[in-house]
Structure formats: C-alpha cells, structure tokens
Amino acid sequence: MSKVLIIGAGGVGTVVAHKVAKNPVFTEIMLASRTKSKCDQIAAAIGGNRIQTAQVDADKVEELVALMRSFQPEIVINVALPYQDLTIMDACLECGVNYLDTANYEPKDVAHFEYSWQWAYHDRFKEKGLTAILGCGFDPGVSAIFTAYAAKHHFDEIQYLDIVDCNAGNHGKAFATNFNPEINIREITQNGRYFENGAWHKTGPLEIHKTLNYPNIGPRESYLLYHEELESLVKNYPTLKRARFWMTFGQEYLTHLRVIQDIGMARIDEVEYNGMKIVPLQFLKAVLPDPKSLGSNYHGETSIGCRIRGIKDGKEHTYYIYNNCDHEKAYQETGTQAVSYTTGVPAALGAAMFVRGLWKGAGVYNVEQFDPDPFLAELGEQGLPWVEKFDIDLEV
Ligand code: NDP
At what angle do helices 229-236 and 142-153 cross, to 10 degrees? Predict the structure, then answer.
C-alpha cells in the first residue's frame, strides 16, 4: 500500500499514470508536471478520482521539496526530461523518498549521456536507506532486464550482446519523433560508440549500419548508436567481449534529419533571434508534431530485444529475447503510441516491484542489478509479452 508521485505529463507520463492507476498496490497517486492542465487531462481520461494533480517546476529543488513534503510519496517516478534527474534526486534525498527514472542525466548544454552524475549519488542514497532505480523504461530498462535474465538462466558467461530496436510503425507524417524531439535528435545526431575487447570504440553518427530481420516485421536497415545501458551492462557483466546497440531508421527520416542538421536547426547552443535568445533545437520541438499526437493514426509494430552469444556448459549458444508491441493496441489502451507505451509500462512495473519489496537495496542501482524474474513474470500481463529463441542465427 503505497503513495506514488509521477513527474512529467508527456507521452510516457500518460502511460505510467494509466498503469499505476490500475494497480491496487498504489493507494494514492499524484501526477505533477510543468503544465498542470496536461496532468488534469490525463487524470480526467483515467477517471474515478484516482489521480490528484499538481504544478511543479522540476528544475527547482525547493518546489519539488514542497510538493514531496505535502504529498509524502514513498517513490517518485521521474518521466520528465533527463535534465531534471539530479534536481529530483536531490529533493528525494531531502525528503526521504525513493526514486525511479527512464533516462540518464544529461546537461542541457552538451548532448552527452553517462551515468557518472547519478552513480555519484550512491552513498547518499545508501546512508539514508533510500533506493534509486535508474533506467527503467524499455531501452534502457527491459533491454538490461532481458540481459540479466539471459545471464541468470541461459548462460554461464555472456560474451556478445547486441540490443536491437526496430520501430516499423507508420504514423503518416513526413517527419516526427516518437518521444521528446529535443532528446531524440540529440541522441541520434551524436557520434556512435560500442564496446569491444575492453575498450570503447567511436564511430561517426550513424556510420555503421546493416540489414537485420525483425520478427513479424522483416528486414530493416539498422544503425549503430551509443545507448546509455551499454555503460552499466559492460560494468555489471565483465565477461562481455562486445556490446552494441542498433536502431532502425527509414530513408525519409534520415533525409529530414540531415537537412535539419545542415541548416543548423539541430544546434543546442543559443542564437540571437529578434532581440531574444533561442535554442534552435528547442524551437524545432515547438513546431514538430507532439509525439503524444501520433497515436491516433499509427499502424505497425515495434520490436526491441537482445541478441546474445555466450557459453553454457562449455558450449557456445545463441539467444534472442524480444517484445513486439503494436501501436494501435497501445493507443486503444492508453491514447499513446507504442514508443511511449513500451517506456511507461516498465516504469510503472518497476515502481510496483519496489513498493512490493521484490526489488530492494539502499543506494543507486541500474535495473539489471535487481532480480529479473518477478519483473519478467508480470511484464506480459502488463501489456508487453516477450518471446525467446534459442540457437538461431543472430545476424550480428
Ligand atoms: P515529453 O516531452 O512528451 O514529456 C515530458 C514531460 O515532462 C512534459 O509533460 C513536460 O512538461 C515535463 N517537463 C519538462 N520539463 C519539466 C520541468 N522543468 N518541470 C516539470 N515538468 C517538466 O517526453 P516523453 O514522455 O516522450 O519522455 C519522457 C522521458 O522518457 C524522457 O526523459 C525520455 O528520455 C524518456 N524515454 C525513455 C525511453 C526508454 O525506453 N528508456 C524511451 C522514450 C523516452 P510540458 O508538458 O509543460 O512540456
């Protein structure tokens, strides 16, 4: 029996609110965000007076502290933007509240993801007997939990890991991003990076690509990106000889992205415009379709999983574990598309794992450090069923 505070009322926050509202383990729910009217709309769509709402600027620790002191949640689910991770963690420490997020901290002025900023909070959370759960969306999130499950049940040693993320959906727009455009464009326009033989190797942005076949979808061009869960997985599974992340993009999307970069609209530094300072990428976000609005006309599926090679009983084996999620079904249930759905479902389930005492430990943890079994036992019934394939050609 537990009180939960959700921060962020975007696509992911909408799904988290729906899922948390259905779970009786959460006795009281507060949804807070920068724009309260968005929280009110979500609460009204869910109905039953299940969700209270509030306005908060999560860049301001004092506002977060005031909200946490008055509501007194057991856990915060942070589905605002990665820029707010540290202020929310600071407020949690001040108020004795546990923490969960889906994306690692990024400073606003550099597109750079790494866990060091949040891992540096470990001792402070531990001393207060509090838990911070990092990266509990799909990727990061389920991707790392799939890896933990493979290591626990199917291998003595996992050696090669390829996380493969395909969105084969079609929303009928010339160009749109599936989650926050600013965060998404910062992620995919930076250099690629992968881990091999004990070292990180850098590539140009989207330089390495190959065609991979996705279940129920078929062949899709897949591009090597740096993705944050690689950092924690390489640390937590030192037997890994190689770890990479691949994501699919269509030609049309890549052409638009190239033009956006070429004309300077992906810049994250301030420029002078009509006597005021604006950040081109933030302005672009204001004119691109809101990811939340894509759902009503979105067809097709996402397919995200882990392709793993390693050793069991002295022999080499391969293993593929994945989920396919249908955009239309996600929309029917929550009013959002599959990318928000696949992120929000694990965040709500991770918080339930914590309040039910199935995931515990004082300090700051990545999701693969918890027991994957109870989480995966319920992931399917929460809307994200998963499939395993053994000793197949992994194509990577
Ligand atoms: P949206 O942009 O749709 O939503 C973000 C929400 O946070 C908005 O409601 C916004 O408010 C609110 N917000 C922004 N700044 C503040 C602030 N200072 N104070 C309070 N609220 C604020 O993003 P998404 O829902 O698409 O993504 C949410 C998070 O999920 C992001 O961190 C993203 O990186 C992560 N993500 C993780 C994935 C995974 O698999 N791990 C996949 C996809 C996303 P307002 O409405 O006023 O703008």
Answer: 20
User: Cα(289)–Cα(65) distance, rounded to whole angstroms?
Assistant: 33
Ligand 1 atom with minimal separation from the 58 CA: 19
> Amino acid identity, residue 271?
V
Contact in structure between 13 and 344 (CB atoms under 8 Å): yes
Expressed in angstroms and rounded, the spacing between residue 13 Cα and the centre of ligand 1 is: 7
Burial of 35 (0-12, 13-18, 19+ CB in 10 A): exposed
For 206-231, the pLDDT digits (tens) are: 999 999 999 999 999 999 999 999 99
80 Cα to the center of ligand 1, angstroms: 4
For ligand 1, the distance from its centroid to the CA atom of residue 292, given in whole angstroms, is 11
Quickly list H helices, the chain.
11-22, 36-46, 61-71, 85-95, 116-119, 122-127, 142-153, 181-188, 229-236, 251-262, 280-287, 327-334, 338-355, 372-379
Quick: pLDDT tens for 82-96.
999 999 999 999 999
Report the CATH number of the 142-336+381-390 domain: 3.30.360.10
Q: What is the pLDDT of residues 136-163, one digit of tens each?
A: 999 999 999 999 999 999 999 999 999 9
List the one residue out of 297, 323, 269 whose CA is nearest residue 169. Answer: 297
Q: Which atom of ligand 1 is nearest to the CA of 14?
A: 25
CA angle 43, 47, 51 (to 5 degrees): 45
Q: How far is the CA of 57 from the centre of ligand 1 (A)?
A: 13
pLDDT on residue 1: 73
User: Closest ligand 1 atom, CA of 80?
Assistant: 7
Domain boundaries, the chain: 2-134, 142-336+381-390
Of the candidates 250, 267, 252, 260, the one whose C-alpha atom is nearest the C-alpha of residue 288 is 260
CATH of domain 2-134: 3.40.50.720
Answer yes or no: is pLDDT of 369 > 80.
Answer: yes
C-alpha closest to that of 370 among 161, 113, 119, 142: 142
